[in-house]
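Lab notes, practical 5.
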Amino acid sequence: MNPTNILAISGSLRQSSTNSAALRAAAEAAAHQGIVVTIDASIRTLPQFDPDLENAPPATVLRFREACERAHGVLLAVPEYAFGIPGAFKNALDWTVGTSALYRKPVTVLSVAPPSRGTRVREALAHVLTAIGADAIFRSVPVADAD
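Output from the prediction step:
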């Protein structure tokens, strides 16, 4: 039997990101259960979304979409930035609109923000993930200081 394959994507570009660290910890813990968690850093290299390129998207976009499609599920950890979704991460989601990359895909959004923060990004992600057709679940793991 093939192991469960989870694609993990951090919404932060920061090298010392708490969100990225949470995904690395999840990947390590999952490995002990025979679950493969692959951390994808495509948001760093995806071009800005351009509807004129949707019919023939760049190779980086195709690889990102294929990684999403191959995964049994997706794990996201996204910080709130300016009361919303960080631009590079929203751009990645925009490249999946109108595709089957995340449609009906189980997507868990892990929030590692302090209890008083992160509400707006969760609300914004709920709207976007609904528009994409993903089956989203939100989980909070409060921390003292996160990005």
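Observations recorded by the TA: The chain is about 35% helix and 20% strand. The chain has a mean pLDDT of 93.
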